[in-house]
Amino acid sequence: MILLFEDNRDLAFLMKRLFSAALGTGCVVCSREQDAESEVFSGNVDMIVSDLNIFGKSEGVEFIRRIRKVMPFTCPPIVVYTGMDPESGDYDEARSLSDAVYEKGETSISELCGRIKRIFSSGYASKPNIPQR
């Protein structure tokens, strides 16, 4: 299952439909950090796709930081899809904690879906993930 941490309901709905159809897997959307964490800690999440700015705050960065801290060797792959300024410190931190970072203005949702599909088909999403530092 893919966990999508996104506050834009329209975008989340579109991404959920595309991911589910293209990958043949479930997709859960959360816009609250506590809900997203609960889903990850349940053990049913194969991949996390997260925005960084959630309701104007850097909650996505906080979420990723906490997941990596609690699950350093068993964390599912984390893909960031964000419109955050690449020059910000939070963006740099997210890049260091994530497996891939894509910018909303440069990568279409269908391109993102294709890249995620390649990760799934490689079997990477089913292996424990050790963050690169």
Task: Explain what you see.
It is a single chain. The model is unreliable at about 125-133 (pLDDT under 50). The relative contact order is 0.18. The protein has one domain: Response regulator (Rossmann fold), CATH 3.40.50. A five-stranded parallel beta sheet has the order 2-1-3-4-5, with helices on both faces. Helices cover about 45% and strands about 15% of the residues. α1 (about 10-25) runs parallel beside α5 (about 110-120) and α3 runs parallel beside α4 (about 90-95). It has helices at about 10-25, 35-40, 60-70, 90-95, 110-120, and strands at about 1-5, 25-30, 45-50, 80, 100-105. With about 130 residues, it is α/β, with parallel strands linked by helices.
CATH top level class name: Alpha Beta
Structural class: alpha/beta
Whole-number mean pLDDT:
86
- What is the rounded distance between the termini? 26 Å
Please describe the biggest sheet, giving its number of strands, its sense, and whether it closes into a barrel: 5 strands, parallel
CATH architecture annotation name: 3-Layer(aba) Sandwich
Please give the oligomerization state of what you see: single chain
Spell out the helices and strands N to C.
EHEHEHEHEH
Summarize the amount of helix as a percent range: 40-55%
For the record, the count of structural domains works out to 1
Number of strands: 5
**Can you say what the CATH homologous superfamily is?**
Response regulator
Strand coverage percent? 15-25%
Question: Radius of gyration from the CA trace?
Answer: 13 Å
